[in-house]
Amino acid sequence: MKCRLRTIGLISLVVVPAIAGSPAKLQAANVVSQELTQGGSETGYFQVPHDHAAMHKAVIEARETIREFIKALKHPAPGQEDFEVKKAFTEGNQVEHIWISDVQIVGHHLFQGRVDNQPRKITGVKVGQIVTVNPKEISDWLYVDNGNLVAGYTVRVHYNELSPKEKAEFDREANFKMGKE
Questions:
Q1: Among residues 10, 36, 5, 33, which one has the least CA distance to residue 166?
Q2: CA distances from 80 to 14, 54, 71, 83, 176 (A)
Q3: Exposure b/e, 32-52, CB count within 10 A at least 16 = b
Q4: Is the dihedral of CA 46, 168, 1, 108 positive or negative?
Q5: N or C: which end of the chain has fewer CB within 10 A?
Q6: Which residues, at least 6 apart from 82, have a Cβ–Cβ distance to it below 8 Å?
Q7: CA 142, 46, 112 angle in degrees (round to 5)?
Q8: Contact 97, 15 (CB under 8 A)
């Protein structure tokens, strides 16, 4: 199943190079690049410094609220769809945050889903590949509830930094509303 969110090009994070050590250190490493795919056009990158406070806060908030995602995923209400998580994949010094769609819970509270972004720096994962994710490893989560985005903290950070023209284009292409979070 192709995710509806993919059509507007959700934001992927690329961290280069990674700081060796804990996942928390990897998550906050050097430069974070964000990509926003517009329809069928070439992807653009937006550089965000490693000390980008709002992006760092977004990842922390996603991790702190993951139980809300799990609850909705286990028992989705009518109109709740497109459950996704974002995970950092590491290869050498490269770290790329990639969306995982078609998420299900497997085993003891692990997520399993399909790689939903074309990796740019990481060669060990491919679009459509089934991967397993520990909830402690996520850098974001989201779903759509009756046309409104729920969570998507890193998406919101990027959206809030778009120009009015870019926001209008994003809103036209998206099949959800950003709403309040």
A1: 36
A2: 28, 27, 12, 8, 12
A3: bbbbbbeeeeeeeeeebeeeb
A4: positive
A5: N
A6: 3, 4, 5, 101, 142, 143, 144
A7: 30
A8: yes
Report which secondary-structure segment, H or E, holds 65: none
Q: Which two tokens stand for residue 28?
A: 């906050």
Higher pLDDT, 179 or 91: 91
Closest CA to 62 of 39, 79, 87: 87
User: pTM for the full model?
Assistant: 0.78
Mean pLDDT over residues 132-148, rounded?
96
Distance CA 47, CA 54 (A): 14
Alpha-carbon dihedral sign for residues 68, 73, 74, 77? positive
Helices and strands, number each (H, E), in the chain:
5, 9
Tokens of 126: 């491919």
